[in-house]
Design brief:
With about 325 residues, this protein is α+β, with helices and mostly antiparallel strands. Helices cover about 45% and strands about 15% of the residues. It has ten helices and ten strands. The strands form three sheets. Strands 1, 2, 3, 4, 7 and 10 form a six-stranded antiparallel beta sheet that branches. The longest helix is centred in the N-terminal third of the chain and has 31 residues.
Length: about 325
């Protein structure tokens, strides 16, 4: 969608240091869209157009006698053209875009201070002036953002029912004449919800893992050992009867294993971080070293070592059998 292209362009420009590469994140994409384009730019435009539609059926009202608050707002944006041009000439695109957005900040501050929705009840002529100035600011936004957000500027011009504006008109206070019929207002930008960003993050993570998997190379084989050394290890099959986290430990899981001897065996393993719900391991037939000397951990005697495999992405999985081998069966 054109709107998404504009949002991406806006975020990349807003984040870009003038002397080094830009760092893009989806979270910043969401924040810039929601907190600036939606909450500042889009919010002001929507308020100005919707109030004009509500009170004058979308016809631009006349500008009457100015008050100090009106003059201050007009004074603040009269030199926007010179500021934006000077920054663009110096290739300071981020700062130029900030100056363009400043028009919306001026507009939001002005409309909030003047409260036309309240003034309408007591002084409709005064309300006409307020909305006229808001609409002139809105038209200026369509021009100021043309270099940065061309699709959004086009959409805004359609809402203003104006085919085009000339860049030289930027800063003018009479871009929309009294009596001009505006188009139908709609939201200029849409809020991006958390689930939309999470989908992008998940997709990015999946791509990252796929790339890592494609580039994976096994670690070098350890130094050669004798067959006699291997025979000293007594590796057996055990049926997990229970598995739970050890209290006051972030790392340890406590396994209760049927090792075929008729007496349950307890083994502690530091793999709790890889199993949020240890109960998923209950019923699995795993491999363990049966003849390691028992040792005390967290006041519990551990009688062996669970064998696990560490994948390329550092995730971990206990080693299991492909069929229901009897507990106590030896591996050799």
């Amino acid at each position: 969608m054109p709107g998404k292209q504009d949002v991406l362009r806006y975020v990349l420009t807003a984040n870009a240091p003038e002397t080094k590469d830009n760092n893009f994140t989806w979270k910043d994409f969401q924040d810039r869209n929601n907190n600036e384009l939606v909450a500042v730019y889009g919010n002001f435009v929507n308020r100005a157009l919707q109030l004009t539609k509500k009170y004058w059926n979308g016809v631009v009202p006349a500008c009457g006698e100015l008050q100090d608050v009106d003059r201050q707002a007009l004074e603040e944006f009269k030199d926007v053209k010179q500021k934006v041009e000077a920054l663009l000439d110096q290739f300071k695109f981020r700062d130029a875009q900030f100056e363009a957005m400043n028009l919306a900040r001026i507009g939001n501050r002005y409309i909030t201070e003047c409260e036309p929705w309240k003034v309408w009840k007591t002084d409709q002529k005064r309300c006409e002036t307020i909305l006229n100035i808001c609409l002139q600011l809105t038209a200026n936004l369509a021009i100021a953002f043309e270099p940065f957000l061309p699709f959004s500027s086009k959409k805004l011009r359609e809402m203003l029912n104006m085919d085009t504006f000339e860049w030289d008109q930027l800063g003018a206070t009479d871009l929309l004449k009294a009596g001009h019929q505006l188009g139908e207002p709609s939201l200029l930008f849409e809020k991006i919800e958390d689930d939309v960003i999470q989908k992008q993050l998940d997709k990015l993570e999946a791509t990252k893992k796929a790339n890592e998997a494609a580039q994976y190379k096994a670690a070098p084989v350890k130094d050669t050992c004798s067959f006699e050394d291997f025979e000293k290890l007594d590796i057996r099959v055990g049926l997990i009867k229970d598995c739970q986290k050890v209290k006051k430990s972030k790392k340890l899981l406590q396994f209760t294993i049927d090792d075929g001897s008729g007496t349950d065996r307890t083994i502690l393993s530091g793999i709790a971080a890889f199993y949020e719900d240890p109960a998923v391991l209950i019923g699995k037939r795993i491999l363990f070293v049966a003849n390691f000397a028992p040792r005390q951990m967290m006041g519990i005697e551990s009688q062996g070592m669970i064998l696990s495999a560490v994948d390329f992405d550092e995730s971990l999985s206990v080693v299991t059998t492909t069929k229901d081998v009897k507990p106590g069966s030896q591996v050799g």
